[in-house]
Amino acid sequence: MASKILMPNPSVNHVAYSASMVPRCHSIGQVCLPNKSTAETTASISQSLVASSITPTISTKLDKTSSTRTSTLAHMWREVQGCNNWEGLVEPLHPFLRQEIIRYGEFVTACYQAFDLDPNSKRYLTCKYGKKNLFREVGMGNPGYEVTKYIYATPDVNIPIQNEPSCGRWVGYVAVSSDDAVTRLGRRDIVITFRGTVTNPEWIANFMSSLTPARLDHNNTRPDVKVESGFLSLYTSNESDDKFGLKSCREQLLSEVSRLLNRYKGEELSISLSGHSMGSSLALLLAYDIAELGLNRLGPNLDIPVTVFSFGGPRVGNLSFKERCEELGVRVLRIVNVNDPITKLPGVFLNENFRVLGGRYEFPWSCSCYAHVGVEIALDFFNMQNPSCVHDLGSYISLLKCQKKGDQVRKDEENIFIRARESILSRAQNTNMEPLRNAASNLVNLFQNV
To answer: Can you give the residue ranges of the Fungal lipase-type domain (predicted)?
Structure first.
């Protein structure tokens, strides 16, 4: 079973954002943060009360801490990418891991922001921007990555009433970290990012809940390894009616990944895949495909790490698929909302939780049960005024950023009071004034407990 850590809001069981705080369904990746917390306001007031008693070396120490954080991420990148299945990093959520989850989530957000849904546009169902300008146009500035390839998927689904052309839709991109980012990240990172479901054929493909053998490795078809047929269709279908048509999503991806691995051969590398909803399914299929074909294998017991950061992702395959992914060393970190129904599909009834009776007797249909892969980080948010927010990527990232902000506020607040107490008590000790020392200690304790 997948590991699981629940991360609810500290003060309530369900995080209830107002309509103005949480983006609507398919909000094209907008991130809306809630107002500053009471803890942050208290910290601000407390800082002004004790500022005169704190030595001016605090800012210097914070700068050193920031510098150490950067170098530490470069040293522990393998742990952050899941080499130890994130043991000790999810409970509580390590700041470096949180930082990377948010960063990969924002790469997915760029897919939504750049996807052209205007039927009158020349770029309809493709990316609005060129590869060189994508990150700048969506407001990411320079994240330290260069986009090398746009990826298209052709849904093999016919809808008689649809007005959309039967062609490939832009679903994501491949990017590689720059030389400057290599120093910061500790390795050359190849990132493949997929958006979630938007068009009608994609929604239809999502509901094709039947398991079919993946058979991605022709040398060993492994008929027991099965995946959801709709996702597999999106991954492998091409425009076969036209000899000059688009190759399958799979062919595009494997070709580009192979090219980049050859280009940066000899460097420290990682392959990071991220996606939301349907996109997380494509990311997991690609990760399995890369590992099954051995594209990431450099030698005996020497593999390039393949890691999936999944946001609101459904189940993709059966138990054999899960076990094979684990055997191949594919690492999957699933960020889910406990109120998100998509994360419970497919296999609402036939899944990893219902294949064994009493923990001992395995049902005959266990081989047909869907199973989640990897380690799960469970968030908890819901909005009565906008129920669709439970699956929105913006809501996921907002909560992660909000908790990061709250954790830092509490940490800074604790550090400020500790330094204030030490400074005041030191001055009182030097002047040998016992009453002043007791009063100062009581005053600081009073504010700290507010």
So the answer is: 191-348
